[in-house]
Amino acid sequence: MLTLEKGTVEEYNIPQDAVDKMEELFQKRGVRIHGYMLLGGRKVLKERYFGPYQKDDNHRMYSITKSFVALAVGLLEKNGLITLEDKICEYFPEKLPGDGAHPWCGEMTIRDLLTMRTCYGSTTYKRYDGDDWTESFFRVKPDHVPGTVFSYDTSAAHVLGALVEKLTGMKLLDYMRKEMLDELGFSKEAYIIPDPVGVSQGGSGLMCTMTDVARVAYLCNHYGVLDGRELLPSGFLRDAVSNLVPTDLQPKLDEQFGYGYYIWMTREEGYVFFGMGGQLAVCFPKYDFCYLTIADTIGSPAGLQILYDCFYETVYPFLKERREDNPLAFAQTAKTKDTEERPKENQTYRFYPNPMGWSRVSFDWEERLVQITIPAGDFTLAFEEDSWKQQPFLNTGYTCECRGMWKKGHFFLECFVIDEEQGNVRMEFAFKDDRLTLHSVSTGEPFFAKLQSSFNGFASAER
């Protein structure tokens, strides 16, 4: 069993004053924090709870549940029950519509679900007239080609949790207990809230202690190995905590550094299990260190950022000063995957029917031009990659500046109005075979209102 011993922050060259300052900032900035922990190796360097919450209380972990589901899927693969390239529809024929799955739904792989690259722009069970959350995933109408752009979809994690239960005949947490959680000393009182038909809520239902999450975070920082025994498949885990998919269009800073398998990348060399409301396990394998919080920032736009910033401004600088060959530090770091591939030829794509009304897009990579056809007309946007290109902004009469950039095979085009009015459009184009998916987000004052419907949402096209 994994024993977490009592330690001191000074063992990690972190002065107590830095921790005191972090707590002071929590209070000054008004964040409602229920508890935090600084975990260095197997030592709890600092741990504190704020009433009425106590150390042994189960706490709702929300989307940290997704990270647990990812680990359970890794166990399925390790035990030969699945491959990540399997089509998810093949496992749930009873959930499909009578006339079969939509082609885009039928195309989705387990890996697509793990990386939040489904064919849906949002959670399906919130848009479904029925109690079966798993069924909703196969019956709601898709809005783009899967395996392309990142789009946060809680129903994807719910379906993979249901897959674990279906293939093992066990509840999700019970399967994980048998395979690895019991070895970690995970609490017996933990549970996952079920959905209306009794399936564990794989997207958000985990109830456990902060210490429970810390035990799993420690194991992940050591790539699944505990005392020489591989409890989680190391190869799978290295991918899970790697930057596999760009997330640049996410609204918050600490959600813009990429995504693995239901695990977010951080602004520094690390990754995070992230649950709504400030449930965090920010992990740094390089330093064998984790920063964990439980909180309630729901409804507070700045709350989550405060939890990150209070740590990064006070404690984290002392971690960066640690020598990499320090015997307390775990030397290996997760590899960041970069599969950037740029098209070599100019391309024109025609869109499938879509709510944004896009009908065509053409790319001239040599001249750095993107030509689009939307309901408002035909437009050309010029871009630079190392600087901004000024030009008229569509038919608004205003001036904008545009920049294009490539990241992991995805092309991002950003347009910012720099005139009497201000607003912006940010577009992501993800390519797959002879198709692409556009994800666009925009904001602006009323001058832009007539155009915004063409720049908020998803659309797919083919050559």
Description:
- This protein is of the alpha+beta class.
- It has two domains: 5-79 and 158-320, DD-peptidase/beta-lactamase superfamily (Beta-lactamase, 3-Layer(aba) Sandwich); 347-462, Beta Barrel (Lipocalin).
- Helix content is 24%, strand content 25%.
- The chain has twelve helices and 22 strands.
- It has helices at 16-28, 64-78, 103-107, 110-114, 133-139, 154-168, 172-184, 210-221, 234-240, 303-314, 316-320, 449-452; strands at 5-6, 33-40, 43-49, 59-60, 191-192, 206-208, 225-226, 229-230, 264-265, 271-275, 279-284, 289-295, 347-351, 360-364, 369-374, 377-382, 389-392, 399-407, 410-417, 423-432, 435-444, 457-462.
- The protein has a ten-stranded antiparallel beta sheet with strand order 16-15-14-13-22-21-20-19-18-17, with no helix packed on it. The protein has a seven-stranded mixed beta sheet with strand order 1-3-2-12-11-10-9. It has a three-stranded antiparallel beta sheet with strand order 4-6-5, with helices on one face.
- A hairpin with a 2-residue loop joins β20 (423-432) and β21 (435-444).
- α2 packs across α7.
- The longest helix is centred in the first third of the chain and has 15 residues, at 64-78.
- It is globular and about 65 Å long.
- Residues 325-339 have low confidence and may be disordered.
